[in-house]
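User: Continuing from earlier, I have the next pair ready.

Assistant: Great, send them over.

User: Here they are, in order.

Assistant: Folding the first of the pair now:
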Amino acid sequence: MVVPRAILPFHLEGRPVRGRLVRLGGLADSLIARHELSEDVSRLLGESLALTAGLAAALKFRGSFSLQAKGDGPVPMLLTDCTDAGEIRGYARSEGTPMGSAGALLGKGYLAFTCDQGPEMDRYQGIVGIEGETLAEMTDAYFRTSEQLQAFVRLACRRTPEGWRATALILERVAAEGGIDGLGNEEADDAWHTATTLAATVTEAEMLDDALAPEQLLHRLFHLEGLLVDRPRALSYGCRCSRARLAGVLQGFPESDLDEMAEHGQITMTCEFCNLAFRFDRAEVKGAAGRA
């Protein structure tokens, strides 16, 4: 599934503000509904998917950008990633049917933002402790401590009559004209304050309304602030699992472990991202001890 205009980058002319509006549309339902998760965990997963896509869109890279949360709460693992081509996937590991805010679901732990460009390039990673009750608050803490960057993040995700929908609105403060970073610059401070105040007026209903075009939503918020919309970017469902890759994983296990995995002569492996099950005949899988 492909959403051609899922990410709409924009900036405010003459002001130290750039941003992205991410609307996953039907892609959110395709990604979330395949997992058996509680309502609140599904909402957290959807917010993470939209946020990851929005953060990845601000980078120039080849590879994947991921958001990973590990905590001691009923959702001990949350992982979403997006490639430079806009292929997105994610999963949340939960215990039971937990309810509550993102902070309650994740508990104490850390949040990691990672840009992986392959084995020949250094991997960039920023890690912060989980701080705040919402994923947006946790991301703000990351920007403040790791990136030393002012940012505004608003996330929305819920099940609508059309299925799950997820949206992210991200604003970042950039260098003002002339190379001034804005710290101590009263005019730039005022411009940033105005932009974030306007962004804070957006409602969840507006963010998740399929009938409200992204350009129209941004126009409502920033039409008096020199809004300039850039070229939209597509997002698509992008699980990178394959039968060949999983077969290679199985071949790394000893024969005795493969025997324990087999049921009625078959080994079943399920991808955590897409929740698809791959079945292999035990007789056809050669373990580590069985290879030359």
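And the other member of the pair:
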Amino acid sequence: MNDDMTPDTAPPAEPTPPTEPTPPAPKGGARRVVLAVLPAVLVLGALGGAAAYTKATVNSADRTVTTKVWGGGAHKPAKDPAGDVGRGRADTELSKLLLPVPENYRLGPDMGEYGNDDEISGKKATAQMKESGRGIAGKQRRERDQRIDRLHVQGIAQRSYTSDDNDLTVEIQIVKMKDKRAVHDMFGFQTELMGTYGGSRKGPTIEGHKKAKCFREPQTKSKLDALFCFAYDGELSLTVNAYGTKPFSASHVADLVKDQLDHIESPGEYV
């Protein structure tokens, strides 16, 4: 080191960078909104995954196989055809409420980790809903779990359907809750969320069923389209998700939703 160096010749110290302001913590109202929306965001994410799966299914489908329509020609269906395995299980009170597989359809792809025609007990369904909240902060997760417990879910029955033309997949889920008020609140929350979900379009009305609302996927350049319908009846909450290639017949899906709701009212009749 040069002994003649003085403090005046020393290199200047680098300036301290300004401290970024800490964003204010969300207030109580905003926090409650976040807690309410999180479960639905997870649901919407699952719907997107289902749409991607449907696209893969449609693209890889073997279109050379001859389609056999159930019953064939002018058939005379039994009074309660739900016993036909090809039309879906009907061995429990809840599974009987699912729409039997209609003509020109077959059982579709698995719904997540479950099959294409399955029922989940209330305890298991509640645990599954709570498990979807992994990653949420401890206190927020506990509050979310308490909200789920208050739903008193008694069971979930679900079934998927794919058209024989491989251009449409429909998923139907019926959730039974102990509290009718919870069912009503769930319907209000789902429809309010979809009504504000970026670009969602109004879907078709369901003839004869005022407690049902449908929403179409936002308009995009994708070759796929989607329709989401929600309804409720007493202790039952109904969700119908449909994915298909464009052009998409929303009215056709609306007819299936109507058939499903009519079937809930009269599960022993042929639809």
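Worth noting for the second one:
Residues 97 and 267 are 6 Å apart (CA to CA). The chain has five helices and eight strands.
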